[in-house]
Amino acid sequence: MSALPLAGRVAIITGATGGIGASCAEAFVAAGARVVMADVDDSGRQLAARLGTEVCRFVHADVSQELDIQRLIAKTVRAFGRLDILVNNAARLSPTLPVHETTLEDFEALVAVNLRGVFLCSKYAYPHLARSRSSILNISSMAGVHGEKDHAVYAATKGGINALTQSMAIDYGPQGIRCNALCPSSVRTPNAERVIGALPNAAELQRLIASLNALGRVAEPEEVAAVAVFLVSEAASFITGAIIPVSGGSECGYGVKY
After folding, report:
1. Which of 59, 70, 120, 128 could cross-link 83 (Cys pair, CB 3.0–4.6 Å)?
2. pLDDT tens, residue by residue, 19-72
3. How far apart are CA 37 and CA 127, in angstroms?
4. Domain, as residue range, for 64
5. H or E stretch including 35?
6. In terms of DSSP bridges, do strands 56-60 and 85-88 run parallel, antiparallel, or are they unpaired?
7. What is the DSSP secondary-structure string of 155-185?
């Protein structure tokens, strides 16, 4: 028996070009999986090539587009013969605004990627996951657990993901599909740093975000990826419907210093 926790498994990771998604791709390959990285940012092809085409491929895909997802699933099964794990990681973060300042266009864009994307990927992955009896892991956020200042719609989409996770866990448990949500708080990703860096009080906000949890710092993407490997492995074989914080203890008083 292989000592690698994901040996023989095939995984799709969306939003895989940077941040948590890229770290998950590297961690999954290191754990023995074959991985298909999906993103609208084609620079992820460089990481896929570095990891090696025998274990990692890149597919351009917009998770909000049904045809893109159908093609992504088909290409994965054609390349590696099966599908065992779906990691729904693709997400939009901006705009960082309260409801009354958010346009309908921005609302729809956030919902299209963050929530519709999880729905579409899970819908079309389901027949393959039912055969392999494996798992769906949704990368959510602590914002979806207790809200976050100036992130109203983003938080709503993540709360929707958490509810969807638990409902899919109930629906798909009889087919042997485990479905969990992983909820980071603040993570040092290129996307987050780009959004925060564009704000006029960026330096102050970065210090504040780091102070909002018990550990006093933001997480590194690799720390989130390590938990992701565990949740999709057989070591977590009796965990489903769980909303797992990877938060540095931020839920003990998240946002109170804003």
Report:
1. 128
2. 999 999 999 999 999 999 999 999 999 999 999 999 999 999 999 999 999 999
3. 20
4. 10-247
5. strand 34-39
6. unpaired
7. HHHHHHHHHHHHHHHHHHGGGT-EEEEEEES
Q: Each residue of 209-239: pLDDT tens digit?
A: 667 778 888 889 999 999 999 999 999 999 9
Whether 191 is in a domain gets the answer: yes
Q: Indicate the number of domains in the chain.
A: 1
Residues near 117 by Cβ (< 8 Å), separated by ≥ 6?
14, 63, 64, 88, 90, 91
Instruction: Give the domain CATH number at 196.
Output: 3.40.50.720
Q: Judging by beta carbons within 10 Å of its beta carbon (0-12, 13-18, 19+), is residue 101 exposed, middle or buried?
A: exposed
Question: What is the C-alpha to C-alpha distance for residues 96 and 224, in angstroms, rounded to an integer?
Answer: 23
Can you tell me the distance from the alpha carbon of 252 to that of 212, in angstroms, rounded to the nearest whole number?
9
Task: Considering only CA atoms, give the Rg of the chain.
Answer: 17
Residues with Cβ within 8 Å of 160's Cβ and at least 6 positions away in sequence, in order, are 114, 115, 144
Q: Is residue 203 part of a domain?
A: yes
| Burial (Cβ within 10 Å: 0-12, 13-18, ≥19) of residue 70 | middle
Residue 218 DSSP class: P
* Residue 214 near residue 254 (C-beta atoms within 8 A): no
Neighbouring C-beta atoms of residue 161, cutoff 10 Å = 25
Contact 95, 152 (CB under 8 A): no
pTM of the shown model: 0.92
For residue 171, being part of any structural domain is answered with: yes
Report yes or no on 257 lying in a domain: no
Q: Tokens in use for 47?
A: 């990481």
